[in-house]
Amino acid sequence: MTDALTTWAGSHTFRGGPVVHPETVEQVADLVAGARHVRALGSRHSFHDLADGPGTLVVLDRLDVPTVIDPDAGTVTVGAGVRYGELAQDLHAAGWALHTMASLPHIAVAGTVATATHGSGVTAPNLSAAVRGLEIVGAGGEVRTLGPDDPELPGSVVALGGLGVVTRVTLAVQPTYDVAQEVWLDLPWTAALDRFDALMSSAYSVSLFTDWRGDAVGQVWRKHRVDGDAWTLPQAGDVLQGARPAPGPVHPVPGPDPVACTRQGGVPGPWHERLPHFRLDFTPSAGAELQSEWLVPREHAVAAIEALRAIAHVTSPLLLVSEIRTVAGDDLWLSTAHGGDRVALHFTWKPLRAEVDAALPVIEQALAPFDARPHWGKLFADQDRTLGGLYPRWDDQVALLARRDPEGVFANDFLLRHGLRT
């Protein structure tokens, strides 16, 4: 059984089993065909029971699928269990790149796209939006391939594991590029909110780190896309008025050594060594932590931020740090950025599960006027079970899950609890 198998930060212990590590797609198909209930696991970078289930747990870390770059199509096809940091190294060595990276390069491709996980940037949609094709082992063990024009693809990318075990993912790529990262400290809240759109558009990727207390944003991380050898670091401009440049490397969480972070100081380097906040060869983020995140439409960002500042007395004592960033919109049915540009409001919590669980409904009540969608892989409450009203294609998604998996082979408590399965 799986009493020792947990999510990466130890926030959930898996109850299903047996745990299997197939090495080929054929082995995955045989496992699914012979099992009553199946859930797929990648790098387990989630914080609750999303990937858990009552039956077989398929871990994809040993899946032997070659990485294939198609330069004519501008795509790469990769095994589902490959981590983004490893894929990025291979792509860069071949002269290619992804359009964005999440904060952590440690996460697996299939789990990342299945949960609409994202990087940051006003022009950068989430990682799921780069998907151009999927290979899925469905209920009964059949292997299906979905291409870019398949009408089911928008409902199959962010499917929370409910359609089967994804074994291959095809992603759009582009020529490799460099990025330079700089950090500023103590930006006054008045300046940040008065010029919020300009601030978040002042670089290819911008992140604000805060504990919600005081009169200033603790850190502003700006990641600039470098084009050409004559590149120079942009001036601070009005958007950083009142802030000061960091005197040296910093960690977004107060206390830990910044050696785990990607290089700062405005020094250009390969995209995959700057777009994530953390280096692949170090423990990501703080390690012992919990996480939550809600995404609100860009037009509601300032009001939502003010609402969160008003409840700092609830959240700040439990926080390691919060992050504010942007995500461009997409058309994937369960994507948290479906239908328009979003601002992500992220919370990295101390490992205090009971206290954090108590704070979640307070946050969701504060964000309720702003159509806030919780990140699927992180902690949220959804006490009133109202998620369906936040997604225009919700009923289509529910119908697709029921049609492709009528016996509920891939159903689990998470999908049942939030109304995606009955």
Topology:
Elements: E1 19-20, H1 25-33, E2 38-41, E3 56-59, E4 68-70, E5 75-79, H2 84-93, E6 96-97, H3 109-114, E7 121-125, E8 131-137, E9 143-146, H4 153-156, E10 165-172, E11 174-175, E12 178-188, H5 189-194, H6 196-200, E13 205-210, E14 216-226, E15 244-245, E16 269-270, E17 290-297, H7 301-309, H8 312-315, E18 319-328, E19 342-349, H9 353-367, E20 373-374, H10 394-404, H11 413-417
Parallel strand pairs: 1-3, 2-3, 7-18
Antiparallel strand pairs: 4-5, 5-10, 6-11, 8-9, 8-10, 12-14, 12-15, 12-16, 13-14, 13-18, 17-19, 17-20, 18-19
Domain FAD-binding PCMH-type: 12-176
InterPro entries: ALO_C, FAD-bd_PCMH, FAD-bd_PCMH-like_sf, FAD-bd_PCMH_sub1, FAD-bd_PCMH_sub2, FAD_lactone_oxidase-like, Oxid_FAD_bind_N, Vanillyl_alc_oxidase_C-sub2
Keywords: Oxidoreductase
How would you characterize the overall build of this protein?
It is a single chain. The protein is α+β, with helices and mostly antiparallel strands and 422 residues long. The protein is 20% helix and 25% strand. The protein is globular.
